[in-house]
Specification:
Layout: H1 2-24, H2 43-153
Amino acid sequence: MLDNVFRERANLNLAIVEGIKEASDPWGIACLRYEIRTMNMPPEIQRAMKLQVEAERKKRAYILESEGTRQAEMNKAEGEKQSRILRSEAAAQEGINKAFSQSKAAESEKLSLILQSEAEMQSRINMAKAQAQAAESEKIQRILASEAAKQAEL
C-alpha cells in the first residue's frame, strides 16, 4: 500500500509536469519539474502506513538475523569440515611415517642379514683356507719326514 502511494505520487508528479508543459508551451514557458511534498491522508490510512513500515522493518530485521544465523552455522560447519580434513591428513601422515619407519627397519634388518651372511661366508672361506694350509703343511711335513727317513737310510 505504501509503495503504491509513493509510486502514484511519482506518476502524478509526471502527469502534472506534462499538463503544465502542454498548457505553457504556447507562451514559451517550460516546466521541468513538479513535486508533491506533503500528502494529508485520513488517520486510518496513516496508521495502516505506519503498521506497514513497522512490519517492513521487522521483516528486514528478521531476514538479517536469520542470514546472520545461517552464516554462523555455515562458518561452524566449515570449521568442523576443516578440522575433519586436518585430522584425516594427520592420520594419513602418521600412517605414512609408520610405514616409512617399518620400511627402514626392514631395510636395516635386510642389510644386517646380508652383512651377517657375508661375515659367515668369509669366516667359512678363511676356515677352509686354514684347513687347506694345514693339510698342505701336513703333507709337506710327511714328504720332508719321508725324505729325511730316506736320507737316514742311506
